[in-house]
Design a protein that fits this description.
The chain is an alpha+beta fold. It contains seven helices and five strands; from the N terminus they run αααββααβαβαβ.
Length: 214
Amino acid sequence: MVTYGDIVTLLLTFFVLLLSFASLDEVKFEEAASSLKGALGILERYQSILKNKSISVTEEDLLRRLDIYESVNELKKVTEEMGYKEAVSIKVTESGMLIQLGDKILFDLGKAVLRPEALPILDIVGKTIRDQAGEVLVGGHTDNIPINSPDFPSNWELSTARAVNVVKYLIDKAGVPPEILGATGYSEFKPLVPNDSPENRRKNRRVEFLVTWK
């Protein structure tokens, strides 16, 4: 009986080892993704986009994701050095990535011209997505304070102009293929938080990059 028990234990260990080899890449990816979530934060509002999807990660996929992980860490480092840590939020999943940049990084209040300080950040975003993304939707968002200027009769025009200017920069300067990009403006109608304080309105003024992997 002792010998039989030893054989059964060895067989169980053998099959557990085989199972661990079969799921190694998935485990590594999950660890990297969990680390990234902890370091950069998650936009809870978008968790439903990629829920209930099974993970199937090959070694090639894992290496590509690790390249993206390094680029995202670079983006985090640069924005922290510029004092914009709280204005950046990134979520990476098995099927895509959502990058949120607060408007104070990219634009002056009520303007759609990119600030010079924003260009290095957009260069990193472009490097992160240009070879890996199948599709990138750039969305502009405002707060609920009405704007009425010669350039922007409403927040619709402002949010759309901001998204378009970001897309143009990604194409012209960051080398992102134009065929994978799209631009849209959401005005004030997709807030992250209620527009009931200056701080919350600042959070809602943002540009988002919704990335789908190839």
